[in-house]
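User: I'm new to structure prediction. If I give you an amino acid sequence, what do you actually give back? Let's try with this one:
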Amino acid sequence: VGILNDLEDLLTIDVYMSSDPPVQVSPVSRDVNDFLDDFEAGSDGNVKIVRHFPEDDARAERKATTAGVPPVRFNLHSQGELQIKTGYLGIVLTYLDKREVIPFIESVDGFEYALASLTNRMLSDNIEKKTVGFLSGHSEMSPAEEMASFLSVLNQQYQLVPVEAVEGVPLAMEGIDVLVVNSPKDRITSAHIDDINRYLDTGGKAFFNLEPVLVDLQQLAGLSNRNSLANYAESRFGVIIDDNIVYDLQSNETLSFAAGASGSVLLPYPFWVRAEVVDNKVGGNVNSVVLPWASSLGIMAMPDSEYKIEPLIRTTAYAGIDDLYKNLKPNAPVFTDPLQSNFFSSDLAVTAESDNGSRVVIIGDADWLSDKATQRFSSNILLALNLVDWLAQEDALASIRSKVVSERKLVFSSSNHRNIVQYSNIGGVPLAFILLGFARYLRRQSKGYKAGWRIRAGRLIGRSSTPTERESEPLE
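Assistant: Good question. You get back a string of structure tokens that encode the predicted 3D arrangement of the chain. For your 476 residues, that looks like this:
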């Protein structure tokens, strides 16, 4: 881990564990201990692992209680009886006068990132955090009220500040490492646009989540947003953010919708697109994210542009666009419109890099960072963190975080395709064994028949050859 290179003193990791862990904890305990052994061995003496067994040592039990590592109760079923057993699997990290605690490690997935994140937090006094600024003053999405889940994680590694727009006053961009612009809905003055341009001209980094179409959640209908900065993205970067909403009939999410007096019903919702992350250099190992009500992107041919544009997020080949966006219900007519039969793959996000060091991410959606999306789909937070790390050129945590496996979703061309795969998995394997057994049976029968035929043939030959042999015997 590159973070270990920044250690100026010994990092001590106290592990509180059970010598005989419950079966629910045993695999995790083994994997965690193996990882910590490798972590210590590769630290060049900067890390010391100390193991404690509170159930066998009263002093270790007191230390665990003081450190904030409690025992966890587990239900065990043995010989028809319910037994309750306690177990420990927590760690305490100590560096200089700082301390961080993981009370209980439920899974080894993401453990490396949690360990690196806590270590990095303890180093924050010695290593200055980079600053992420959120543009405000144009009815942007509120970070505190609408993006709390994302911000709570981002705040662990970055200093978060507002960049308030006041008319007649230049934007305070000094010290901003990454500028985030989330769905402005009011006009941004030309003077403030010039401030953003100067920031980018000097190697600044920006994260644009722009929405040409806003959605009325009560009516499930779209409203055009003339102040989305789509025109700026086109003129500055050559990236066209279309005035539409993309849907995908095969790769989407299932949501709950009100069904009158009968309560609610779960329905596939093609306007919430699950799209593929196509640039692993930037997105890490995050395979896909969910973008609600996103707009399609196009890349203009601009030979003289200082920016190199690369696709970042893309739909499957079963996507379409709704240019009217008046009906965004799960049974919208656009899904069955015969004029919409030509489906295609559409870019939903791109990255841009300039020779002067400037980096930019442009996404045709902002709702993907809202709590209503991130609380459902953790891969959205993972990708957003990786994008900020890429913009801020903080690659150490991104490489670790991306080892967490994100969701992979199968995409089918039709419901018949889905049914074929489903029923093939259910009946295909047993049928394969039956056919294999039948083939072996026929083969054995064939061998038995051939062996019997050889025996009978041999007998017939023996009988027919006996007189001949006698006739050829010499007379004495």
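You can read the tokens as a compact description of the fold. Here is one thing that stands out. The chain has a mean pLDDT of 86.
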